[in-house]
Amino acid sequence: MPDLAVPSARMTIAPQNPPIDAFLATDYRVCTGERWVTAHIGRPCPALERAAGRPWCIITAHNPAGRRRSAQSNRAAAARLENRLRELDPVPMLPACNRDPAGRWPDEPGWLFAFRDPTQVRELAEEFGQLGVVAGQPSQPVELWLLDAPAGGELPPHVRVLAP
Questions:
Q1: DSSP string, 57-89
Q2: pTM of the model
């Protein structure tokens, strides 16, 4: 299978980039129908590979651009995302929740969905103001796909910039 994101070894970020650090520390929980499975960036997640059956991503509409929004604003955005995904009719489409294990950031409900191509992922992330998404490909560790390359040092392993 071809690589769906553009490798970004030449892209750079600041050594202590809080948004990327937050993404890397997050527990990405998905309800597979049988149980909740937790994925982490940089580690394989065979249970989600089996559940999705093809390339997948986890997206939320909560807290666009990494800025806290009101519960009401997040609920409205989440409802729009769910409706938008249902229009696309991905199989599967599974409930997900991005969780800060330290409890410093509120849970961000979202969805795991199988996608047709990375352009679809980028368009949805842009539409809902997200900085990035978590993605999985068969037999690969889970990755963070950013929409834009941050400035500064090298990107950590398993972090890529999604091609425009």
A1: EEEE-SSGGG----HHHHHHHHHHHHHHHHHH-
A2: 0.88
Cβ(85)–Cβ(93) below 8 Å: yes
pLDDT in tens, 65-93: 999 999 999 999 999 999 999 999 999 99
Beta strands in the chain (DSSP E): 12-13, 27-31, 36-39, 56-60, 93-99, 108-114, 132-136, 143-146, 153-154, 159-161
Q: What is the CB-side half-sphere exposure of residue 138 using CA atoms within 13 A?
A: 7
94-116 per-position pLDDT tens digit: 999 999 999 999 999 999 999 99
Return the amino acid letter for 34. E
Name, in order, each residue with C-beta under 8 angstroms of 56's C-beta and a sequence gap of 6 or more.
48, 112, 113, 114, 115, 135, 136
- The confidence score (pLDDT) of residue 6 equals 36
- Contact present, 136 and 128 (Cβ < 8 Å): no
Say how many CA atoms lie within 13 Å of 86 toward its Cβ: 7
